[in-house]
Amino acid sequence: MNSIKRTQLIQSVENGGIQLTNIDSFLNAIKCSWVKRYLDSTNTSKWKLFYQKILKKYGDSLLFECNINNTILHEIANENIFLSDVLSAWSDVTHNLETQNSSKTILWNNKDITSNNKTFFYKDWFERSIKYVDQLYDYRIKDFYSFDNICYIYGIPSNNFLKYYTLIKSIPTHIKSEINTNNTPCTQTTFVENILGRKNKTNKIFYSLQIKNPTENSKIQNKWQVLFGENELNWKDIFTMPYKELLKAH
């Protein structure tokens, strides 16, 4: 019951809450703001070198764009608990972003693209600017490029044959079947770019991403609706009425 009440209290006034701060979401927002400072290329603080050394094996800043899994978080935690905590918060906050544009699905460190329960990251391929699934896909034949074509396009060494076929065979069916869609919602990559482009504090953005508006009426709302029958209640007006009247009184 307490959990339900807290969920209601953190909502906006229009949704029947009092905008009470959710402490967990607030702390996650602060941790995510650290990511902005880390990714800021104009920030040349020495502390960044320490974290770059740890993240380098995963692609450094790339990791904040990836659909990461707990395995990577545990590996990083062995070297730095704070960094693992930040990444966990970042993953929690950004995982609800629209990322259904499969052609822009990132190949590396992606928990949906695995082999033997391990994600992929080919550092030398990434350095050749291979990042997204669609870069391996030939839209003319609606299938992935042959290995010879990949070698020609990206200069991949000829002894990477097994690495390539293991990778494309590990891409799940739903990504393959949707790769030709033209939908272009906000991906995690564009989200990172937008956040970096903001000069003001981003804590509020990270916090608001975690507060989900209710998708259905509460039991109390349904009970009142039954009493009023076919007359549909405007809950937004009902919830905000006391505040409006209070403002008028002053």
UniProtKB/TrEMBL annotation:
Protein name, UniProt field: Uncharacterized protein
Highest rank taxon of the organism: Eukaryota
